[in-house]
Sequence to fold (77 residues):
Amino acid sequence: MTSGNPEGFSYRTRKSGDVEILHFGKPAGLLREMEAVKFLSKAQGADELTLQHLMARVTGNYKRGNERNTAAHQRNR
Fold:
């Protein structure tokens, strides 16, 4: 069973100032202008787990509520 923590996210800043979010090396999101500035300010002092959560949230790949438990549901067996 997994812990439910996001993993595999990374980011890079483009010359234009945009921030590209990657998930296991594949593009998962792009932040432009003010969104990129806000993200970079939050990411600057964050530890790795907090940074992973932040990137998961901005890409929409963040499991909420009981979505973590769906693998155990009878219809998914």
Observations:
- The radius of gyration is 15 Å.
- DSSP finds two helices and three strands in the chain.
- The chain has one domain: 9-63.
